[in-house]
Amino acid sequence: xxxxxxxxxxxxxxxYESGDRASFARAIATAQATYPSGTIVQVSVADAQGMVIYxxxxxxxxxVKGVSIADREHFKAHLQPGSAPLFVGRPLLGxxxxxxxxxxxxxxxxxxQFDGVLVxxxxxxxxxxxxxxxADSQRDVILVLRExxxxxxxxxxxxxxxxxxxxxxxxxxxxxxIAQGTYEAQAMPDGTHRLYAWSRVQGxxxxxxxxxxxxxxxxPLNAAIRQSLWRNGIGTALIFLGALLTAWLAWxxxxxxxxRRQSEQRFMRLAREVPGGLxxxxxxxxxxxxxxxxxxxxYSMHCLDASPQVQAQGLSGLxxxxxxxxxxxxHRSITQAIHTRGDWxxxxxVVAPDGMVRWLHGHARPQLEKDGSVLWHGYILxxxxxxxxxxxLRRGEEQLRLTIGAVRDGLxxxxxxxxxxxWDARCHEMLGLADQALGVFTLAGFVELLHPQDRQRxxxxxxxxxxxxxxxxxxxxxxQADGNWRWVESRGEVTQHGIxxxxxxxxxxxxxxxxRVEQTRLVGALLERGSAxxxxxxxxxxxxxxxxxxxxxxxxxxxxxxPGLPMRQLHGNxxxxxxxxxxxxxxxxxxxxxxxxxxxxxxxxLRWFDMQGTxxxxxxxxxxxxxxxxxxxxxxxxEAGLAxxxxxxxxxxxxxxxxLLVTDGAGQCIVAANRMLVSMLQLPLAPEQLVxxxxxxxxxxxxxxxxxxxxxxxxxxxxxSGRTVHALSNGRHIEIERLPLSQQGQLLxxxxxFHDVTDYKQRESQLETLASTDALTGASNRRAFLGRMExxxxxxxxxxxxxxxxxxxxIDHFKRVNDSYGHAVGDxxxxxxxxAVSRQLRADDLxxxxxxxxxxxxxxxxxxxxxxxxxxxLRLAVERLSVPVQGLxxxxxxxxxxxxxxxxxxxxxxxxxERADAAMYYSKRNGRNQVTCWTPRIPEVxxxxx
Length: 946
Description:
By secondary structure, the chain is an alpha+beta fold. It is about 40% helix and about 30% strand.
């Protein structure tokens, strides 16, 4: 029972923490309905300061405002770090309920912080009645205690122990680490001397103690002993009666043995009354288990009888009843418990002979014996009902949530006697009002919300329902918060009548039908005011209805056509009529058909129509058909002219001296391509095979630079034309020119023109090399290096480039080299520096001389950490250099380096240079021969240095 209450309490905590107050209220109602009336005295919630903020008893008789439980132990216990999730408190007199109750409490948390306590108050009288139903005799007693000795329930004289504890000398018997035991004591309430056996409740900080009246157990024995002594005395005096007395004593001994067995049977009956099964299982030193003791309930739990044959089978017989899906997990849990000698707890299913499945929960605790074996004491509980209740609760809640979410109706009720109308949140939401914005209002107030044209009709229907019992179902318009009107369908029924038959209460629902009304009006408007021609044809293929546009087009009467007009008259000839009839087979099979067809219009000419036929009743393939027609005659004529124009364009594209690729307006689909394109890019497909294919399907066959351009411009539509040149891996250069195809500001497509500019680029490259190289060192000069930086930064801004970094390096004390050895030796130092640095660079990296002894390196495709590591490699490479000088010792020198990553949001190249220069200067100021990565604080340090 406590496990079920704890599970219920956890469910309430989950609902309350989620903020779903409706689910929280349902959980309380379900718990009260599940247990006998009066079991749950109260469910309350206190905030983090201990103030009661909720009670299911909250009413004028039990007000919770200003009530605090901050001094109660079931609140303070959850303030302690590492406290148990469930706390069982002492019986207290409730400040709200005014009744004695046992407090079961769990902490509430919000965003991981303590947010209060949820308390379930359990009636001690209910616990006492449960214990009374188990006790075997009126003089026997069963106690439920806390581990500190406080009484929670007593099968007898419950009121005498409320708020009291067992004596301290008895509390010493319940020391931690002792699971169970026995003792004798004289009970406080009634003074009866009893024999007690106690045990801890698994999973809860509670003790259960059962006391048997010692007089009932030892009385016959003590009386027999007194009689024996008396008779022995008499026997001494009357020796001749010795034989008779011996016989009588033997008989008395048998009687005493019978009384002992009777006492054992009483204990066994008590064990049988314990819900579930009890067992002792011995595990020897070799790990082999053997059942030592089981009560009958143990085998009945496993759908077996307690016959000797079944008991002889041991665990193998029990395993045969375990559900196959649970057998492996059960075996693993037992094996693990035996191996670790820890507590065993497992939930599994057994299958009854009739196929029914029962859920069992087993628990056992080990005890090491003197011979090295392990004795397990445990119990088995039937939790089938708990599982079924929880599963039914989960399914019921899910079904209720789905139903409410699907229906989306509002609930209303009317107290007919007091004339009080109340709407729920959904009713208010339909009219754009906040929840309970109208509060409680009268029927007259409801009528004021009605559209003036609907008031009399709604009131008339309501009166007929109240007086004659006619159904109340009406479509009406209600005024919204913004002053507009909303169509709502209201349904209601009197749910309570007085003794005199007069209505006392009426309840109903509001459904939002605004969309349905608008759709109905829209359909009517489409039929009569839309641009489509609508004809309805009978199964005999006679036109029986025509809207105004169809009537004007075909020269027939609008509306219902009586008698029906044969559709044959609308076809140009009999072949057209017969051919059109073949579509009816597809129409009957699929419910709809679409076709372009020429029909005869008023005046005798033929016009092309886009016709879509749909069964008026999808369930009746032989019923009427509604035909929707759109005049596409002009389009047919335009398509014919367009086909001729397309042939001319294909001829021009095929003979164009450069490669051509034309895509649609979205840049996703290929519209045209020529053979020059296929040849230039060495594509595996013919031009006609490319037409209609996605641009993405072409990308795997393109050189990488060309593919990047097409992918970028396909995903980012750039305005205007553009021209770019790309180097291919085979040494050729392709110039790609993008020409937007537009008309009146609307983009129709993209035209890509591919020119082979290899010869031109070779000549241009030679000139650029001469113009961009430092004559002394061979590194890129300042103009070329800054140009490359501008290009990289532009690519970053467009999202085309990879991350890169700038490294500034300056020779430490280079002036001393020039002053000591001369400028010729200084030039040699610069050459050796460039050579050493270039050996550390990759193909995409660039080294440049910015002036004097100041150099820069642009590292492509690196982040800040990689750039810092690469810069450190450069520093070490220079540090290891040795520049030979004729007649003198070799020159060794170092460099100071500053690193700055280039990012998409950088304002300019100058800003990047300033950051790298500031970082380099920071390296010089802090000892030289080191690398510094720029951070926002570096410029401040540099300014302080200046």
